[in-house]
Write the structure tokens for this entry.
Amino acid sequence: MTRWNWVTIGCCCVTMLALWWFTPEIISCLGFSATSTQGQFGDQFGFYNALASSLTIILLAVATIYQHRQFETQQREYQELYAAERIRADQDFRRMEMQAEMINEQKQANRIALLHLRVKNEREFLTYHKAESHANPDEIEDAKKNLDKFEKQIKDEFNRVFVA
């Protein structure tokens, strides 16, 4: 609320308090000096008192109904928002699962490619050293063992990834 709204509310409260406080003096100024006469004067406004009370109760009921409708609307909007967020979260989770699966497939493909490169290296090593007359027989034997080991790893990895 703005400052002027608070000032207006304050002025209204002070005015009502002053009227309530000075009501006996106002009534005596109107010529009603006796208490019984003042009571009769007040009884003239009984209808307005009942009307004001009835309007207050009706407005209270209307405000309660309006508040209940607003609450239901807010609750429905919250449920719709929650459902939309849940769907979005499920979609994000599925997307992350797919990305993780793609990363694992790429990792496996890279591992197989690396093993193929090792086999190629060992074959080139064997080819080069067989052509050389000064080749060390132990190195050639180690290269053959490595070649067999890498080829077996490729077969195992391929079977594990694509067959299983």
Remarks:
- The radius of gyration is 47 Å.
- The chain has a mean pLDDT of 81.
- The CA atoms of residues 89 and 95 lie 10 Å apart.
- The chain is about 90% helix and 0% strand.
